[in-house]
């Protein structure tokens, strides 16, 4: 039996790899937003997953430290994670909802904050994505699953 750490298996320094994946994730979100390939909010994501799960390429679950103990939010996360795992959708946990809001353009019209606890990235209507940044994030998710880390965690650094 082989007991390798994630860093040993990936052959990269853990911090460098995480920073690299975080940067790739930012690129994915920035390029998906103008194409209309972003669904924001737990309820909206659940509706989208129910209608067309095959079109979802990435699911982000975001919570800041003070929200980690929110039982209702954790129940939502558990259900979404189970659905995504069953439908072979890549999942990432992120911890910086303020940075996520910056990447996604702030809030809703009228100044109302967005529900950033769940963000889905979907394929554009015309053709599937062929984006190197998305490939990097997907590879990170796949490598994590191989090591039995089904929902890897990414720290989105402040800019």
TrEMBL record:
Claim: Phosphoprotein is one of the keywords in the record: yes
Subcellular compartments: Nucleus
One Pfam family recorded for the sequence: Ribosomal_L7Ae
BP-aspect Gene Ontology terms: DNA damage response; regulation of cell cycle
Domain of life, per lineage: Eukaryota
Span of domain Ribosomal protein eL8/eL30/eS12/Gadd45: 24-105
Key words, A-Z: Cell cycle, DNA damage, Growth arrest, Nucleus, Phosphoprotein
Primary residence: nucleus
GO cellular component, one term: nucleus
InterPro entries linked: GADD45, Ribosomal_eL30-like_sf, Ribosomal_eL8/eL30/eS12/Gad45
Family: Belongs to the GADD45 family.
The protein's name: Growth arrest and DNA damage-inducible protein GADD45 alpha
